[in-house]
Automatic annotation (TrEMBL):
<dbReference type="Pfam" id="PF04039">
    <property type="entry name" value="MnhB"/>
</dbReference>
<protein>
    <submittedName>
        <fullName>Sodium:proton antiporter</fullName>
    </submittedName>
</protein>
<dbReference type="InterPro" id="IPR007182">
    <property type="entry name" value="MnhB"/>
</dbReference>
<feature type="transmembrane region" description="Helical">
    <location>
        <begin position="142"/>
        <end position="161"/>
    </location>
</feature>
<keyword id="KW-0812">Transmembrane</keyword>
<keyword id="KW-0472">Membrane</keyword>
<keyword id="KW-1003">Cell membrane</keyword>
<feature type="transmembrane region" description="Helical">
    <location>
        <begin position="173"/>
        <end position="192"/>
    </location>
</feature>
<dbReference type="GO" id="GO:0005886">
    <property type="term" value="C:plasma membrane"/>
</dbReference>
<feature type="domain" description="Na+/H+ antiporter MnhB subunit-related protein">
    <location>
        <begin position="110"/>
        <end position="218"/>
    </location>
</feature>
<dbReference type="InterPro" id="IPR050622">
    <property type="entry name" value="CPA3_antiporter_subunitB"/>
</dbReference>
<comment type="similarity">
    <text>Belongs to the CPA3 antiporters (TC 2.A.63) subunit B family.</text>
</comment>
<feature type="transmembrane region" description="Helical">
    <location>
        <begin position="109"/>
        <end position="130"/>
    </location>
</feature>
<feature type="transmembrane region" description="Helical">
    <location>
        <begin position="72"/>
        <end position="88"/>
    </location>
</feature>
<keyword id="KW-1133">Transmembrane helix</keyword>
<feature type="transmembrane region" description="Helical">
    <location>
        <begin position="204"/>
        <end position="225"/>
    </location>
</feature>
Length: 239
């Protein structure tokens, strides 16, 4: 696409959004009023659908299409990291370097702290995901905690152990599968009644989001680590 064509597409989209905003403005409540019609309707809909957490009801039922978009954004970010940070023609994976042959020289206290916090952080992340539909938290937050837990191994100075702990291909399969499951489940939920959607689909969708977010962050960070620690230009290898 030429620069002129891209500019034309941008202005066409911007004009459409501007028209929609102008049409929506007259229907908005006056500024400064104490009434919040959206909040009242969201709470009423959440309680009618038997969802114990109103935020989860909004994320996974009332505005599920927004959540689908957020899932696809993270999926696109992981895919972009895989494509952009791969080894190219003048680069290659090199064996060598302290972080690749064994643990780095760090304080024993730091290594012990990482080893002790890893299982605790994994449990906390799993708890946040599992209870996100009924309490503060959820798949997004719990997924980030789970991904962060694995990288405590790297902070403790053991990059080879991190590589063994999170082989990338299974995480790529899990992330893409979870994103597809979320879209299919969200579409299938439209055939259920309001109460069935809240009681049956919200916990499942929350768990799928946790898997997709955790795997997505692991993949993105893995590609950045690979680019920083393993990929080297060929011309430097020849010296």
């Amino acid at each position: 696409m030429t620069p002129r064509a891209r500019t034309a597409v941008f202005f066409a989209g911007a004009a459409g959004i501007a028209v929609l905003l102008l049409l929506a403005l007259p229907g908005m409540p006056s500024f400064g009023l104490g009434a919040h019609p959206y909040g009242a309707r969201a709470v009423r809909a959440g309680t009618d659908q038997d969802t114990p957490n109103i935020i989860a009801s909004v994320n996974f039922d009332q505005r599920a299409l927004d959540t689908v978009g957020e899932e696809l954004i993270l999926f696109a970010a992981a895919l972009g990291a895989v494509v952009l940070l791969r080894a190219v023609r003048d680069e290659r994976l090199r064996a060598g370097g302290d972080l690749r042959h064994g643990p780095a020289d760090v304080f024993d206290a730091l290594r012990l702290t990482g080893a002790l916090l890893l299982p605790v952080t994994l449990v906390v992340g799993a708890y946040v995901v599992a209870n996100g539909y009924s309490s503060p938290g959820g798949g997004f937050q719990g997924g980030v905690v789970l991904a962060s837990a694995l990288h405590l191994v790297y902070l403790a100075g053991d990059y080879p152990a991190l590589k063994r702990l999170r082989p990338i291909p299974p995480f790529e399969v899990a992330e893409s599968s979870a994103a597809a499951l979320f879209v299919v489940s969200a579409l299938a939920a439209g055939a259920l009644t309001a109460t069935e959607r809240g009681a049956r689909t919200v916990p499942w969708l929350n768990a799928v989001v946790g898997v997709e977010v955790a795997c997505g962050f692991v993949i993105v960070l893995a590609r950045f680590f690979e680019q920083a620690l393993e990929i080297r230009p060929r011309r430097k290898e020849a010296r």
